[in-house]
């Protein structure tokens, strides 16, 4: 057995963890030494205490945000993939529509969110629409790129064997596009969460169906800064977990053949 | 030393075969001019008998790959015709006359295991799994990779990948095998090993093969006939028949006759590359 310090898995988990612990310690000690008041900049211990105290309400908010995020992510994956398939059918379609996909991407969501919230009656739905718009572009652009990046040798092999369009798509284009698609998923999952939180901020919804952004706004109004940070912490953790899930998914699908997932031993 | 070099393309052996059966491939005044005006091939006439191992060799730009692609029906001649078994080349595969093409690169699907890669042409032709699988394992066994059927291409060496590519060609049970510098990217040792195996496969099946190479040694070792092409425009410069006992092995490579063939072919290639050789035929 290898010594623990030389094990790659151990280092990969322990090293960032150690950095985190050091940072938290510096933060905690710095706040204590400088006697910084809680309402200006809370200590990690204050944030943790608030997380426990406001657990149920924060958790409820988290579930709402998470639901919007996952709905938006799913919608972006389905829509983005369909659009990418449409794009690769003909250059004409791609050339005429791609600028609008870019337009969608560069328009700040805060600018159009109010419009969407007014137009769509259902709050949940309007927030999902906003988050979808944010998460859509990486899926479209990556999947399109992937579907186009066909090995020319294999492409002519398929042509020589008179493979139908459908067979070429299923057996050649789709498997070849998977690494790009998963790259898109990683970016998009984080963007869906950001989109959901930003849309919640703009909507500023009260009442029962209010997510983590509302918790942050509400805590800000009440100068309950530790609760603000606690909500922020939950958003961050959710984002990291989503990213991790996408990495795992990509590993599962590509580990056998694609360079990006072969690891250090290959 | 130069005595055993029959250079007549209508060597008696070939002529006898051609008389018995229709030729596998006939290139009839086929000419290729690309869209940009480049004249890749001047009108070419070439008859390939069934069971022949014919090699195309020549300086770069002589159109040997273009000629191979014309024969494969991958591109269309600007003028003239290509016949397969006296039929139109557009109808290949419709009456059991199958064709397989092996590229310079293995062109395997990196996401698929060896057996799936070999099954690809059968899958594309909608051959049911029950019928396809025995053919796939047979083809993999023929190239000596049975132990690697469930491996991914990235786990194989360059030579093994090329073997998979050849197995994929054999799985379709072709009548005509076309190979475009298939071992060009491999080291000499691996190349010789694959040449040995290829000539055995060819001999077992009497598979009509058209082979493109840059290697004089490879051409002499494998071929029953070598066609030397010259460039500007691409045309047949000379043909050499290698009438040697089959199947050939290392003893042929080590023989004085082998060296003589190589020397002669090398001289021809040098002549074919001379500027004076160009433009000799309008």
From TrEMBL, chain A:
Per the record, the GO terms for biological process are: transmembrane transport
Keywords for the protein's UniProt record, in alphabetical order: Cell membrane, Membrane, Transmembrane, Transmembrane helix, Transport
Topology relative to the lipid bilayer, per the entry, is: Multi-pass membrane protein
Q: Which residues cross the membrane?
A: 12-41, 61-85, 97-119, 125-147, 193-217, 229-249
InterPro entries annotated for this entry? MetI-like, MetI-like_sf
Localization, per the record, is: Cell membrane
Q: What is its main location?
A: membrane
Source domain of life? Bacteria
Q: Does the keyword NAD apply?
A: no
Q: Which Pfam families match?
A: BPD_transp_1
A cellular component term from Gene Ontology for this protein is: plasma membrane
Residue ranges annotated for the ABC transmembrane type-1 domain, each copy included: 62-247
State the similarity comment. Answer: Belongs to the binding-protein-dependent transport system permease family.
Q: What is this protein called?
A: ABC transporter permease
Record the organism.
Bradyrhizobium niftali
Automatic annotation (TrEMBL), chain B:
Which keywords does this chain's UniProt record carry?
ATP-binding, Nucleotide-binding, Transport
**Superkingdom in the source lineage:** Bacteria
| Residue ranges of domain ABC transporter in the record | 25-258
Q: Give a single Pfam family match.
A: ABC_tran
Q: Which family does it belong to?
A: Belongs to the ABC transporter superfamily.
Functionally, this protein is described as follows:
Involved in beta-(1-->2)glucan export. Transmembrane domains (TMD) form a pore in the inner membrane and the ATP-binding domain (NBD) is responsible for energy generation.
Task: List the protein's name.
Answer: ABC transporter ATP-binding protein
Q: Which GO terms describe its molecular function?
A: ATP binding; ATP hydrolysis activity
Under the heading SUPFAM superfamilies, the entry gives: P-loop containing nucleoside triphosphate hydrolases
Which species is this record about?
Bradyrhizobium niftali
Give yes or no: UniProt keyword Nucleus: no
